Amino acid sequence: MRQEEIWDADAADSYDTPGTGMFAPDVLGPTVETLAELAGGGPALEFAVGTGRVAVPLAAKGVAVTGIELSRPMVEQLRTKADEETIPVVLGDMAGATAPGAGSFQLVYLVFNAISVLQTQPEQVECFRNAARHLAPGGRFVIELWVPEVHKLPPDKKAVVYQSGPGHISLDTYDTLAQHVVSHHFDFDEGKRTAKLFQSPHRYIWPSELDLMAQLAGFELESRHADWQRGRFTADSGSHVSVYRLPVGEYRALAGAAAS
Question: Are 37 and 161 in a shared domain?
């Protein structure tokens, strides 16, 4: 299934959960604060801007935010919160679309595992290269991404339950050969024996592989933490926030030539 078909009007209408989940203040607040700091007063570009979960509060802090988004329904939801002048959005694939001001952004960022929706390694590498094309010298590319949980797979099984609660259960099914995972989200109607299912396919990426993709695009790893509060990243961390930076001067020119 294509991403445009997954992120349709139904998905866009139910995406926002104000005040809870990934919209909870203790989740969203540190994300916005850290990104505003990394932007350093310069313009920022969000790949897969979605409904504006991060872009809207980041713009409210005075950061000039532009977005790239593949799903028109998601952008329509964003437009209920911010107009085109406040947060310009380019409809297109984050691996190839070009936003106005390319080459002048101080920050490009991808949050909440968004890079993994690109289904092949070459597409993910092109995403890094597209970020590099949009950044000014010394600019940063920030990625929030989960660490694959294949170690939790039971023997001879392909599924892991990663979240459960009243009325909801989520599980991932893995294809370890192709490095693919499909997330299955089941929401149950209270008092009924029916459930609503939402599925999203991903290509998971190990941190070391992500670093190699960055090198191919001319980036250097600046920092990696376990979360937006800058907790220490360890072998037990379930996710990471990785900050890559474009070098300046002659080295950047050589790295860019090697990536082209």
Answer: no
Q: Write out pLDDT tens, residues 7-40.
A: 778 878 888 888 988 899 999 999 999 999 999 9
Mark whether 80 and 182 lie in a shared domain.
no
Domain count, the chain: 2
Question: Which amino acid, 2?
Answer: R
Is there a single domain that holds both residue 170 and residue 62? no
Quick one: 168 and 184 in the same domain? yes
pTM above the 0.70 mark?
A: yes
**Look-up: residue for tokens 């929706």?**
117
- The parent domain of residue 62 ranges over 3-147+206-259
